[in-house]
Amino acid sequence: MSEPLHYVSAGELARRVRSRELGAVEVVRAALDRIAAADPRLGAFLHIDAEGAERRAREIDGLLARRDDPGPLAGVPIALKDVLVTRGLPTTAGSRILAGWIPPYDGTVVERLRAAGAVILGKLNLDEFAMGSSNENSAFHPTRNPWDLERVPGGSSGAAAAAVAAGLCAGAFGTDTGGSIRQPASLCGVVGLKPTYGRVSRWGVIAFASSLDQVGPLARTVADAALLFETIAGFDPRDSTSIAEPVPRLGDALRRGASGLTIGRPRELELPGVDPEVTAAVDAALDVLVHLGATVTDVSLPHAKYSLPAYYLVAPAEASSNLARYDGVRYGLRAGPPGQGLHDMYSRTRGAGFGTEVKRRIMLGTFALRSGYYDAYYRKAQQVRALIARDYERAFAEVDLIATPTSPTAAFRLGEKVQDPMSMYLADVFTLGAPLAGLPGISVPCGFTPEGLPVGLQLIAPPLGEATLFRAAAAYERATDHGARRPPESNLGGAP
Ligand code: GLN
Q1: 315 CA closest ligand 1 atom index
Q2: 173: phi > 0 → left, psi -120 to 50 → alpha, else beta; which?
Q3: Does the first or last residue of the chain, that is N or C, have fewer Cβ atoms within 10 Å of its Cβ?
Q4: Which of 164, 214, 146, 221 is nearest to 191 (CA)?
Q5: pLDDT tens digits, one per residue of 172-199
Q6: Is 296 in a helix, a strand, or coil?
Q7: Coil, strand, or helix at residue 299?
C-alpha cells in the first residue's frame, strides 16, 4: 500500500519526520502542491499561509537536526476552520463583517497545536459564523464535495472535511455546535469527533452558541483523530467552562476491541426521512460491531424528537447575544458615511456585514429572548434540553454507546436546500442531541451509496467517554475498509 505523501496519515508523518526519514519541509511542500492542484476545484481554503508553513517546517527540521523534540505532531500539515483565532493570519468566521481583521493572538487550540510541532497551512471555509449544514452560507464561496463536485461537503466545517478527504492536509480542526464536525465528516467520508462540552478550550474560538460550541478534529483515520484530540484537549484556565479532568491516553482504547460493549439504538430516531441506503449502511455497521463481540440493543430517547426545535431556539438566542459585538467599533468592517451617528453606523455595518442566514438567526434569537416571550420560548427550550439530557443519562445506565446515522442522507446537491432553511435544519436531526446534552460524538465512515457517496455512522458516549468512542470506532475501522477509499482523482486535478 503506497499512497502519495499527501494521503499518509498524521501519525505516520510525525513518526517519519521525528525519525528524520522525511523532512518536515518535504511533507509541507507535498501538502501545498496538493492544495495548488486541487483547491481551485474544491474551494476549501480562505487563506493559505504557504510562506509561514514552509518557515515553520524548516524550523522543525532544524530542531530535529539539533536533536530537539518538536513534539508529537512534528511536521504534520494541519488546516483550521476559520473560526479559530490565529495570530497574524486573517480570521473571518466566513463573514464579511470581520473583513480585514488580523487577530493579535492564538487561541488555546492553536497554541497547543503549534507547541506540538504541527504546521498550520491556512484557514478553511465555513458557513458564516458556523451557521449551516452545507458551506453554502459562506460569505465568500461554496466548498465542493471531493466525491462529487456538484454536491455539498456538509457544514459548517465542510471545507475541513473536504480538505482532509482530498489530502489537502493531514488533519483539520472544526467546531461543532449542532453537528458541524460530524455531519461534514460523514458527507466527505472522514472521521470527525465532537468532544464532551468543556473538554476542549473555547478560548480564541469565535463564538456561535457558547453553551454548545466545541472544537474537534477531522481526520482520515480513527487513530489520527485520537492523536489530534489528545493534543488539543484538557483544562484551560482561560475558559471557565473548561473541565479540570485529565485527558486519557488513547493508545489502549484504540487497541482494545469492541468485545463486551453494549450499543443502544434509539427507537425514536428511526425516522421516515432517512434514506434507505443510509439505514442499510448503518445496520450493516452494527452487524460488524456485533460480529466483533458488541451487543446491540434498543434504547429509548423519548424527547429526541424535540431536539430540533430546542436547538433552533437555544442556538439562535445565544448567537444573537454573541454576535452583538460586531458593530463596526471593535473589529473588521465599518460601513456608512461618517457623521451620521453611532446607530446609523451600527445598522449599516451589520446590514452590510452579515449574510441572510446570520440575520435570520439574530432575529429568531432576539425574538426568543424578548421579554414576554422568554418564558414561552427560551426558557421552555432550556427545559426541553434538560429532558433530552436526562433521556441520554437514563439510556447510558443501560448501554455504553448510542448509535445512529450521522446524517439522514448522503451529500446533497449544491443549491438543493438553500431556498428552504427548514429542510436544511432537518438534516441536523441526528447530531443535535449530543451538543444539547453536552456529550461526545464521533462520525466514522461506514459505507457508500450506489452513487459512490460516503455514509457515516455516529456513536455517542456519556460525558468524558471519548475513550469508548475511540475504542468502538477503531475496532470497527480495522474490520472494514470504508475509510481507506479515496475520492476520484479526476475531481482533484489528477488523472482519473
Ligand atoms: N447545522 C447546524 C446549524 O446550522 C449546526 C451548525 C454547527 O454545528 N455549527 O446551526
Answers
A1: 10
A2: beta
A3: N
A4: 221
A5: 999 999 999 999 999 999 999 999 999 9
A6: strand
A7: strand
Cβ atoms of residues 32 and 50 within 8 Å: yes
d(CA 82, CA 139): 12
CA geometry: angle 71, 195, 263, nearest 5 deg: 120
Q: Is 81 a known active-site residue?
A: yes
Indicate if the pLDDT at residue 208 is higher than 60. yes
Tell which atom from ligand 1 comes closest to the C-alpha of 133. Answer: 1
9, 138, 156, 320: the active-site residue: 156
Q: What's the pLDDT at 418?
A: 87
Q: Does residue 130 line the site of ligand 1, with CB under 6 A?
A: yes
Tell me the best of 83, 156, 176, 418 to mutate to test the pocket of ligand 1, counting ligand atoms within 8 Å of each CB and taking the most. Answer: 156
Q: What is the pLDDT at residue 1? A: 53
For residue 390 the three cell numbers come to 436526562
Catalytic residue among 95, 133, 134, 180: 180
**Residue-wise over 194-203: b if at least 16 C-beta within 10 A, else e?**
bbbbbbbbbb
| Lookup: cell for 163 | 480538505
pLDDT, one tens digit per residue, over 227-243 is: 999 999 999 999 999 99
Q: Which three cell numbers stand for residue 276?
A: 434507505
What HEC string does 41-69 produce? HHCCEEEECHHHHHHHHHHHHHHHHCCCC
315 Cβ below 6 A of ligand 1: yes
Q: Which of 9, 81, 134, 242 is catalytic?
A: 81
